[in-house]
């Protein structure tokens, strides 16, 4: 397999796994308190934490304030989370291609 074919395969895998910034922000806007955007972006642990804090916040005020601050911070973090995800997919695809070339 040539290096051009290898790179095309890597970029195809990256394109297939690419997360949409628009979808992430829509989920953040409509389901942010429930961690919808974090579930979409693959941050399941923190998404569950956000969901629990929001549910507990239905009974008291302090957790809702925490969720609100967290959502504000997430509005700025979404692009970097998507970039990190893309970099991880690219790194994994390059490893897979290297294994195929060795075999």
Provide a descriptive summary of the structure in words.
This protein is mainly alpha-helical. It has one domain (3-102). The protein is 83% helix and 0% strand. The chain contains five helices and no strands. The protein has helices at 3-17, 21-31, 36-40, 44-57, 62-102. Helix 1 (3-17) runs antiparallel to helix 5 (62-102) and helix 2 (21-31) packs antiparallel against helix 5 (62-102). The longest helix has 41 residues, at 62-102. It is elongated. 14% of the residues are buried. The mean pLDDT is 94.
Outline:
The chain has 103 residues and is mostly helical. The chain is built from five helices and no strands. It has helices spanning 3-17, 21-31, 36-40, 44-57, 62-102.
What distance separates the N and C termini?
11 Å
H/I helix tally:
5
Could you say which structural class the secondary elements and strand pairing correspond to?
Answer: mainly alpha
Mean pLDDT: 94
Note the main sheet.
none
Radius of gyration: 18 Å
Give helix and strand order, one letter per element, not per position.
HHHHH
Silhouette: elongated
Regions with pLDDT < 50 over 5+ consecutive residues?
none
Give the DSSP E fraction (strand runs of 2 or more residues): under 5%
Helix content, binned percent: over 70%
Number of domains: 1
Labels describing this entry:
mainly alpha, 103 residues
Task: Describe how the helices and strands are arranged.
Blueprint: H1 3-17, H2 21-31, H3 36-40, H4 44-57, H5 62-102
